[in-house]
What we know:
The protein has helices spanning 2-26, 42-50, 60-64, 85-95, 134-144, 166-181, 218-228, 272-277, 311-320, 342-359, and strands spanning 52-56, 99-105, 148-153, 188-190, 197-199, 206-208, 233-236, 242-244, 259-260, 284-285, 287-293, 327-331, 368-370, 393-394, 402-421, 429-438, 441-448, 455-474, 479-486. By secondary structure, the chain is an alpha/beta fold. It is elongated. The mean pLDDT is 94. Beta-L-fucopyranose binds at residues 67, 192-194, 291, 298.
Amino acid sequence: MQYTYIGFMKKMIRLLLFVFVMLPACRNDRAFIQADVIIPSPQQIAYRQMEFIGFIHFSINTFTGKEWGLGDESSELFNPTRLDVEQWCSIARDAGMKQLILTAKHHDGFCLWPSAYTEHSVKNSTWRNGQGDLVREFTDACRKYGLKAGLYLSPWDRNHADYGKPGYVGYYRQQLRELLSNYGKIAEIWFDGANGGYGYYGGTYETRHIDRETYYDWDNTFELVYSLQPDIIIFSDAGPGCRWIGNEQGLAGKTNWSTIKGDSLTIGASSQEYLNCGDPEGDDWIVGECDVSIRPGWFYHQEHDDQVKTLNELKEIYYGSVGRNAVLLLNIPPNKQGLIHETDSARLIQFGAFIRNTFEHNLAGDASASSENILAPKYHPNAMLDQNMNTFWAGRKGLASSSAELWLPDERSFDLIMLGENISFGQRVERFNVEAYINGEWSVVASGTTIGYKRILFTGTVKTTRLRINILKAKADPLISTFGIYTEANLNQNNGNT
Ligand code: FUL
């Protein structure tokens, strides 16, 4: 009798362990996928995780001093005398960029590769007696330095005689075919929204306008792009891979959804405010990309050598882009020699060191987290403290409060808070705050609307032993993968331009 009772109890304990510990632990994360929550593609997740990428504006404008060439510039003008693409790549890599995008063709129509479809290219330049192919050198160097390679092919072409007529679209697609077939894997293609206006257009010197909705027949162009490069991220005002953030200052909205209504967007004619903030009701995942130049212009101009952005300016851009759920695309234009100017390269390396030194170590990494709302041991709030998006805190459905507390082993001082959601299951948080226990009471030290993949908030100096994150409103159960505190690195270097 005694034996049977003990045996029964053991079985019961095993059963309870199985139901309450083993089963939830084995829960497949995919169960978090919900029909009404839009999720990114694996390519878009990988894209978002790059965080910081670079733009290279380099073309005929570098030699004429213009920002927008008219299209009548002689190809011979292109002649970088000390071109070193590996210099661009090594600086970009050392600064922490994961990808570079080159202006294969800007609005003036000059091609940095020997296109078979135009004479307006490097093949008629002085550079390497017309034998060079800068797209080839660029893509090769990117791969050598562990960077992904992207290309910008301006839809507007102020050189081409057929621009504005149906024939040009075929020409544009042939160029896309060349770029996306002959240079290995291309990670991103950039479709600029600037379209139509005055130009050379084969010698006619006139103003040509296009219908932004219909002229390029973008759907078929996108189909062509995907058929040649299935994993590519397509950038434009309307995505579909990533979207323009609506300004060229590198700043995303404080509220920034990665979702948006893609069908309502027109390349070159969308509401900049809408692009800046995204749309919680959006049915397409099109993450924001913040493009900005380290100099006043996109192309190199010697007279701007003393106007390279300061570290403080770059820091603000970083917090306003990566820190607001977007990717930062920072332009570093090479000079006439074909090199990145020493001021730009020094600033970029300094900026990279600032990011690394500030964020490499979560000062709450050894805290113990707790919450009344934990779905299963696997989703314990301690999972927020590592740097891994795939480990995250999840609560039980239906519990009103989603708060978690961090107990630090000793008093810590910080001035930045970093939060993140596991975006594999969509972007969910609509409102949150973070409190710190200071002088015997809880005080709100940061608050906001969206979080997304990464949200960084500046708090001013806070000293505490306890912190609390409160998710106040969410579209679906919040899945928080990051909760970190940091102190801005003091690089103790000259922050100005002189
Ligand atoms: C704009 C262009 O007009 C600029 O010249 C530059 O290329 C920038 C990145 O996009 O729309």
